[in-house]
Amino acid sequence: MSNASPSKLFPLFADLRGRRVLVVGGGTVARRKVEALLDAGARVVVGAPALEPTLAEWKANARIEHIEGVFAAQWLDAAWLVIAATDDVETNRAVVDAADARRIFSNAVDDAELSRFHVPARVERGPLQIAISSGGGAPMLARLLREELETRFDDSFGALAELLTRHRERIRARWPELGARRRGFAKLLSGPLQGLLRQRQHLAAERAFDAALREHETTATRGSVALVGAGPGDPGLLTLRALRVLNEADVILHDRLVSDEVLQLARRDAERISVGKHAGGGGHSQAEINAQLVALAQAGKRVVRLKGGDPFVFGRGGEELQALRAHGIGYEVVPGITAAIACAAYAGIPLTHREHAQSLRIVTAHGKDDIDALDWASLARGRQTLAFYMGVAGLDRIRERLTAHGLPAATPFALVENGSRPEQRVVAGMLADLPALARLHQVRAPALLVVGDVAAFANSLHWFGREPLTDASFTDAAAASPSLAAAA
Ligand code: SAH
């Protein structure tokens, strides 16, 4: 095997605590290496004619030693490792040659050929470190992979590694035999422990850990429920935590509003159950859904209750948690991007604006009773933005009540149908024309209604999908599409 381009490097994690490491170079590249070395507890000596400000500060605080001047071989005296971090290839080469002569391992920054050891790309979570190397051949690929791993493993892995390190002796004593330890571990990790760490419930996590150590191997694991917001439809708007929970799910109970693209991101072998409620009755009642959540969790499943938008905004998430709590079932809540936030963003409507609106009202206008219960006098005030959910069927009433309470008929509105999805449509106009325009364009649920001066920005700031439909654009569309004209 040729050693000109090393096809295989031997990975190793070095204990540098208290050991002298030489860094040649005093610029920002050197500073980054020094920082990592200090983090590992090394005694760092920096050799360079001059130091950049942070290095100079560390010198002043005696965190590093400084040898001033041009590289000389005796700088390597007593060093365990050396990093050549100058911007001069010849100097770097001289450092590596001198180190070779003394059999000291050397690294030349960003020079795989010259380096005798490589510093891998890494992902750090507390005491846990994942190091990635492409052998120097494809550093961009290693970097990409690192980014992917950064999103795959959240902070809870650091807390987990820390907890396991702390209890290392107890774990060995509990499962002296390797096979049993492996099984015990697998079960420990499939339980609530990591979820608790993720929620920063460290005391509860310690208790769960204790319980797992005491448990017999045959005891069933306890189920739990994650109430998760799936966002408005665009899978890119899912949170990293939602993605993680979806990857760990045994069962997913989802609403009709959840898009297929989002469901596709869940664990392949997770069972998917649609529990959509239909406006005209039928489907699943809330009581049925609550009972199903409780039963699945009691059967030991990791359940994800997946809802469109955010689970706590017109999502009945509160009622489901009350049911879970009443049965002593563990849960967590993962927020999602709610329709008002998503639709406004994807329609180019700033929900607040210093000149137009200082507050945002999130309102439901589902049935006649909901509508009558609203405080219309306060909704009809100016300088605010109204976001109506579930309002498609009540547009006539919304316009009538707002106008009756004094909101000018010329107030702009925008109706965003299927916000953030490829088929998104925006209908924009004046309050006076709201129901007529919606009928003209046959707007259907799910659609979000924005009322207020900011809604007019849909005409000038739109960026996603088709241009807003207004009176004028309807005339164009009608000319181009006789069937639409006929339908209207
Ligand atoms: N929990 C959800 C809201 C559920 S109520 C959330 O936070 O978004 C259902 C209503 O939400 C729909 O009638 C519609 O008004 C709105 N909605 C949800 N997703 C939408 C989307 N992609 N585009 C437009 N409106 C949407």
TrEMBL record:
**Where are the catalytic residues?**
D255 (proton acceptor), K277 (proton donor)
What residue stretches are annotated with the Tetrapyrrole methylase domain? 225-434
Metal-binding in keyword set: no
**List of residues binding NAD(+):** T28, V29, P49, A50
* UniProt domain Sirohaem synthase dimerisation: residue ranges: 157-213
State if Metal-binding is listed as a keyword: no
Q: Name one GO biological process term.
A: siroheme biosynthetic process
PROSITE patterns, sorted: SUMT_1 (PS00839), SUMT_2 (PS00840)
The Swiss-Prot or TrEMBL record describes its family as follows:
In the N-terminal section; belongs to the precorrin-2 dehydrogenase / sirohydrochlorin ferrochelatase family.
Sorted alphabetically, which PANTHER family does this protein's record hold?
SIROHEME SYNTHASE (PTHR45790:SF1), SIROHEME SYNTHASE-RELATED (PTHR45790)
The protein, known as: Siroheme synthase
